[in-house]
Design goal:
- By secondary structure, the chain is an alpha+beta fold.
- Helices cover 55% and strands 16% of the residues.
- The chain has four helices and five strands, in the order H-H-H-E-E-E-E-E-H.
- The protein has a five-stranded antiparallel β-sheet with strand order 1-2-3-4-5.
- Strand 3 and strand 4 form a beta hairpin.
- The longest helix has 40 residues.
Length: 201
């Protein structure tokens, strides 16, 4: 069973349960109010109605639990049987090293995307893990334009707390430009665009 189908069926089952409880409570309240003993003081009418509403909700919930139990069992079974098969266990040390190296690269990309909130509060593309390329060193790069990359380096400050560094790397200069916000990236790309449109004579 596909994940989205299972999720949709889960939602349907839970919705039926909730709607049934609400309907049971409403029916119980109507019965309690309609068939309360004649001459019952108004001070007792509300508690009696509330009790019958609660009994109606419990009764409908119990009945729905029995009715929906087979469907719930099938969904639980599908949730565990549809899990992807585990990856093959490395048989040699080089295979293990390759697997860990690949995981390190993915981890670096994820850390870069998470740390990008420091320069990208708007949660734009810089927060997308798929756009980052991680390296075994724990660093990562983000392609911005031809010859322009945003580079991420994890570090720690003098107190041992994480300190994330973002710099701009270009193919025509060995220097790295520290980046503190998206505005600085925009300004750099704007200057490069103007240089292309209006080349120096």
């Amino acid at each position: 069973m596909r994940a989205f189908v299972r999720s949709a069926l889960d939602s349907v089952v839970e919705s039926i349960d909730i709607v049934g409880m609400v309907a049971g409570a409403g029916a119980g309240a109507v019965l309690g109010f309609t068939y309360s003993p004649a001459g019952l003081p108004d001070a007792l009418l509300l508690p009696v109605t509330g009790i019958t509403a609660l009994l109606g909700a419990l009764g409908s919930s119990t009945a729905l639990d029995l009715t929906l139990a087979p469907a719930r069992r099938r969904l639980v079974h599908a949730r565990y049987t549809d899990r992807p098969a585990p990856a093959a266990v490395p048989g040699t040390l080089p295979e293990a090293l390759t697997e860990i190296s690949r995981a390190t690269e993915h981890d670096a990309a994820a850390r870069a995307a998470q740390a990008a909130y420091r320069i990208d509060n708007a949660r734009s593309e810089l927060r997308s893990e798929e756009r980052w390329r991680g390296y075994e060193t724990g660093e990562a790069s983000y392609y911005l334009a031809p010859g322009v990359h945003l580079y991420y380096r994890p570090a720690k400050d003098q107190h041992g707390y994480p300190r994330h560094s973002f710099t701009l790397l270009t193919g025509d200069s060995p220097e790295e430009t520290p980046i503190e916000g998206l505005g600085e990236i925009r300004e750099h790309l704007l200057q490069r665009t103007k240089a292309l449109v209006l080349p120096s004579v």
